[in-house]
Design goal:
Low-confidence stretches: 1-25, 203-210
Number of domains: 3
Radius of gyration: 36 Å
Distance between the termini: 100 Å
Order of helices and strands: EHEEHEHEHEHHEEHHEEEHHHHHHHHHH
CATH superfamily of the largest domain: Hypothetical protein af1432
Mean pLDDT: 80
Helix content: 40-55%
Length: 516
């Protein structure tokens, strides 16, 4: 070592304590020193004791061999690694570089090779053959030069992370938008938008900020409502926005909603997007990291896509509501013609939903079943009044005519491209088939009968027996249960019968909610 250099190895103080690994903090830049000489760790800490970059201090971890470094790197990420070449073997450091880049697949960390034995690792060969970012002989690293090295390394790391973050941001926008557009519920869509935007803002490694919290709200006319929220604002979901904003310490969301503006501040963001359906929507997020102009641009792009998704979802929900109302009105018309209360189709739909959930249908399947079940008797529209409303038992000829309503209902609804109508056709055509194959119109059996129809058949019989009809009085509950047990595996799907017996209290509660 030269006497004229201000060597960091010449700055050793007596009484330096043994190096210990401090608790890891997110509010630091992280440096890993890998060297088998304890003195190197001690003097590196001493030389960089007061180092800061962008107002954040440096936190230094130690590894005393390549093997030890691998264990540390498996658990933590670092901005810079100061790496010795010769440790447990002559090329342990070089082998560690290959492991970091090729096995651990960390392309972000800046690796600075430093060696006290340059003959063991010639500079040109090492720079050419190994993915390192700088090569220094230990005799070069004075305190001043070590400071310079840290600044250049951290600037490089910061820029690489920024590029990576923006790349991930674009991926998040693409994936997030696809996920958001797949939602069929305005509530699900807005919750998904919050989660995806949070992901977009939380992708930089080592970002220093608290948990993101926020909400989305929509306004139509003079009514505003919180649709989705995260963190401490979750309690405001479904509340009026005017109520929620009373607890806001800083931004006035109502002003932003009224003026239709976006607002980026130091630690929060307000996004405004207007629907083509004359609705105004607003998104608020707090606890943000520092945002670059590109970050803000990505957020604006994401919010523009969310505005389109809001429109599409609102139109989809409106179509669903319209479809549901048409189905119920058609079903009510049939029930009124047969002098049965329209509450029959409501109760049946509720029982079908209960059984569908219990047997494990997916959410969308449950929803479709609930909407399609009221169409089960649509074929009765073609049955003569004299037969449909006959107070007594039907004779054999009349019964054959009555049985036609299943095939007629199936054919009325057949050929539709709408999922609800397709399922309605299945239910109408198969809800009088029997598990044992002795039903009509086609004598199907077991699981050849659509699960929708098997559920609807059981719900229809339960409701018909429990309530008075023009041709019979209401049955007592114990008599209904006896019939279900007797017909288990004959008329009805045995698994569904067991579910009914287990949930009979819930079914009676449905009957009580919609009495004749």
């Amino acid at each position: 070592m030269s006497d004229n250099d201000e060597l960091i190895f010449a700055d050793e103080d007596d009484g330096l304590e043994e190096v210990s690994q401090p608790p890891r903090s997110e509010k630091h830049w992280h440096l890993l020193v890998v060297d088998d000489e304890p003195e190197v760790h001690q003097v590196t800490r001493l030389a960089l004791k007061n180092f800061t970059f962008q107002d954040l201090p440096l936190e230094i971890d130690s590894a005393f061999s390549a093997k030890h470094a691998k264990q540390v790197l498996e658990e933590n990420d670092y901005a810079i690694i100061l790496l010795d070449v010769v440790m447990e073997t002559d090329h342990a450091g070089l082998e560690l570089v290959k492991w970091i880049r090729e096995v651990h697949r960390d392309q972000h960390v800046r690796i600075i090779l430093r060696t006290g034995q340059p003959g063991q690792a010639p500079e040109r060969e090492v720079i050419r053959d190994y993915d390192i970012n700088d090569y220094k002989e230990k005799t070069e690293l004075t305190s001043n030069r070590l400071f310079t090295l840290m600044y250049s390394g951290l600037r490089s790391y910061r820029d690489i992370i920024s590029l990576h973050r923006n790349k991930k941001g674009l991926e998040t926008i693409i994936k997030g938008t696809a996920k958001v557009f797949a939602q069929h519920s305005l509530k699900e869509l807005t919750q998904g938008a919050l989660e995806q935007l949070t992901a977009l803002l939380q992708i930089s490694e080592g970002a220093i900020y608290g948990e993101l919290e926020g909400l989305t709200a929509t306004q139509s006319g003079n009514e505003s409502q919180v649709v989705a929220a995260t963190g401490k604002y979750s309690n405001y979901i479904s509340n009026n926005l005017e109520v929620a904003v009373k607890d806001f310490p800083k931004p006035n969301l109502l002003d932003n909603l009224r003026l239709g503006r976006n607002q980026f501040e130091e630690d929060y963001f307000i996004g405004f997007y207007e629907s083509h359906l004359k609705k105004k929507n607003i998104l608020y997020l707090e606890g943000l990291p520092p945002l670059s102009q590109l970050d803000k641009h990505l957020i604006q792009i994401f919010c523009n896509h969310i505005g389109i998704a809001f429109d599409n979802t609102s139109m989809f929900e409106e179509l669903e509501v319209t479809q549901k109302e048409i189905v119920y009105r058609m079903s009510e018309a049939v029930e009124n013609r047969s002098k049965e209360t329209s509450h029959h189709v409501k109760r049946m739909a509720e029982i079908c939903l209960l059984l569908g959930k219990a047997i494990g249908l997916g959410e969308r399947q449950q929803e479709v079943l609930y909407m399609a079940a009221p169409l089960h008797d649509i074929g009765k529209v073609a049955i003569p009044d004299a037969i449909l409303n006959k107070p007594g038992k039907l004779d054999p000829e009349e019964w054959e005519i009555m049985k036609n309503h299943a095939a007629i209902g199936r054919d009325i609804l057949a050929g539709s491209k709408l999922e609800v109508i397709q399922v309605g056709s299945l239910i109408a055509g198969e809800h009088h088939e029997r598990w044992d194959g002795n039903g009509y119109p086609n004598g199907k059996s077991g699981k050849d009968i659509s699960v929708y129809a098997r559920i609807a058949a059981l719900a229809d019989v339960i409701d018909a027996l429990y309530n008075e009809r023009c041709y019979k009085p209401a049955w007592p509950l114990d008599k209904i249960l006896d019939l279900l047990k007797a017909e288990k595996g004959k008329q009805f799907d045995p698994e569904l019968v067991d579910i009914v017996l287990d949930k009979i209290d819930d079914i009676i509660a449905i009957q009580n909610r919609f009495p004749n």
